[in-house]
Amino acid sequence: MLSRSCLGLLNLVSVDDYQALSRVPSLMAVPGEPTRDSYQISRDGLSSGGSDDAVSPPPQERRIIVANQLPIKATRDSDTKKWIFEYDADSLYLQLKDGFPSDVEVLYVGSLKADVEASEQDEVSQVLLERFRCVPTFLPWEIQNKFYHGFCKHYLWPLFHYMLPMSPSHGARFDRAQWQAYVLANKIFADKVTEVINPDEDFVWVHDYHLMILPTFLRKRFHRVKLGFFLHSPFPSSEIYRTLPVRDDILRAFLNCDLVGFHTFDYARHFLSCCSRMLGLDYESKRGYIGLDYYGRTVTIKILPVGIHMGQLRSVLSLPRTAKRVEELKVEYEGKVVILGVDDMDLFKGISLKFLAMGQLLEVHEALRGKVVLVQILNPARSSGKDIQDVKNESEALAKEINDKYGRPGYQPIVFVNGPVSTEDKAAYYAISECCVVNAVRDGMNLVPYTYTVCRQIVESERPNQSVIIVSEFIGCSPSLSGAIRVNPWNIDDVSEAMNSAITMPDGEKHLRHEKHYKYISSHDVAYWARSFDQDLERACREHYLKRYWGVGFGLGFRIVALDPTFRKLSVDNIVSAYKATHSRLILLDYDGTMLPQASINKTPSPEVLSVLNYLCSDPKNMVFIVSGRDKDCLSKWFDPCDKLGLSAEHGYFTRYITLHYIGPICFVIVRLILVCVDCVAG
């Protein structure tokens, strides 16, 4: 593949000597705990929520984290109209800092979860950079709507979760205007990174499906940028992905990274299959790493499930409010077995299937009526639309039907807890639940079972720590939880019996399953995940300065060709000079695509081709061979007029040799070596 891409290198211009942009200075250190640090900005000026600290020296290394949303909470005071900013302690992008060395600076690029007026954007940007090391992107409303709510949430999200838009009522179809907004939004994010990056030193880590083509824009600007990408959603099978009209553009953007990460082997396998089927790329596994050879570059594929932040969860569980809420819930559900579900209001979370299984459980096992409660916490939906409303209506209708059928005064089988629910309340529900059910029909990682296990471990109990997890086999965390009860969420009977098994399971087995899960979860937390990815990104970028890079292609088809430093561009003058200076020449020629256009209908060699071949063969210093995959009868017939021409048919299986008196002594040795190699090849 590389040789084909090098045919046009005569017209390429090397851009090895790019100008490095200056590093954003570290103007102010951020003191204290992230959750307590805040900053305020009013329409009239700036006001600080904390004391100023001394200027810190610039660190030796820096990581630029690029995500759709910054790890910042932004609210406006209703009385003073001031903006109040603080770190979002629940944000994965903030938590991953724990995996980096202490001397590494982390800079964030992303959008805010609030609308900032154009007149305030410069001041807000200054505050976020100086105080929080964040570089905000501000998208025009129309672009934001088409980019996020249109292409990301209504097209990409369902497609990556195996939902094809077979009709207008079953998902949105591809919209060129939304795709263009997606491209423009990615370019705006890339421009923000370009403003602050030091391409010689910084490592860039891009997150999730919102920014899948951003790597192409960065690689086009900085050929040696150290670039990693992690996909937090599922990657569909090739049969689903191939329906995407812009499939090649997105795949090539992935391949413009140095390292691409997935939660599970299945997601990585699907990606590799797409690269093989649609781009013709091969991959190899070596020393535990999977590598794709892409125009001379090795793109490393990493399988790395994300974890939770143990420290942040411990701090929540240690709060007096959490402990108080735990005691309240124990009293409320005394004498009952609590099964917990925590899900976003989403089409793929399987909420209605979970309710059907609960109804089946109470129908089959009458003794459990009045003793088992399914508490369902519903987080607010991340998007809006008819599909979300349909899920809400169906779930509420099913819950009402089951409660009416099996409920009685003082007992409801299904308890709805509509969000938003505070972190402390969620932790309390986790702590008092005997079983946790994650029933999604398709999901990325889903850390609910991890959080549940840790809450059951930390909260004090009279009995040894116990927990049972029922997990869908279609979500990312399933392979990591070897002690969980895996179910097919579409099989209602299977899920119902899993619930019954969890309820009736002996305490000793519950304890063993819990300990097994907790040991894995506590050792594979978010810091471990970030540290592992960061180390692999450094490893993937080690050879950046050992090669020369050339840009090929336009627009989203842009890619980099990596060449050995000793590589020289093909020079006709050098070839002619070397040709005249040699006394023995071996000339090996392909036929289709070389001597004849690949798309030509008439495959017979033209008189001009035969004339040129006879001219080359007439020189006693030349030995000319045609090597082709065509059969021997066809080649013998076509090149019968060239009696001094050697033929190698069917890729060397049949060979017509040149009469020996035409072959010089050196060329004869070369032919013998070629024949030895042919004999060593199977077939």
Describe the oligomeric state of these chains in a short phrase.
Answer: single chain
Percent in strands: 15-25%
- Helix count, per DSSP? 22
Shape call: elongated
Remind me, CATH topology of the largest domain?
A: Rossmann fold
User: What is the count of β-strands?
Assistant: 25
Structural class: alpha/beta
| Number of domains as seen in the coordinates | 3
- What is the mean pLDDT? 86
Offer a concise description of the structure.
With 683 residues, this protein is of the alpha/beta class. It is elongated and about 105 Å long.
Verbal overview:
With 683 residues, this protein is an alpha/beta fold. The protein folds into 3 domains: 62-303, Rossmann fold, CATH 3.40.50.2000; 311-521, 3-Layer(aba) Sandwich (Rossmann fold), CATH 3.40.50.2000; 570-682, Rossmann fold (3-Layer(aba) Sandwich). 39% of the residues lie in helices and 19% in strands. The protein is built from 22 helices and 25 strands. The strands form 5 sheets. A 9-stranded mixed β-sheet has the order 7-6-3-8-9-10-13-12-11, sandwiched between helices. Strands 16-15-14-17-18-19 form a 6-stranded parallel β-sheet, with helices on both faces. α6 links the parallel β8 and β9 (226-230). The longest helix has 21 residues, at 176-196. It is elongated. It starts with a helix and ends with a helix. 36% of the residues are buried. Residues 1-37 and 42-56 have low confidence and may be disordered. One of its GO terms (cellular component) is cytosol. Keywords: Glycosyltransferase, Membrane, Transferase, Transmembrane, Transmembrane helix. Residues 44-53 have a biased composition (Low complexity).
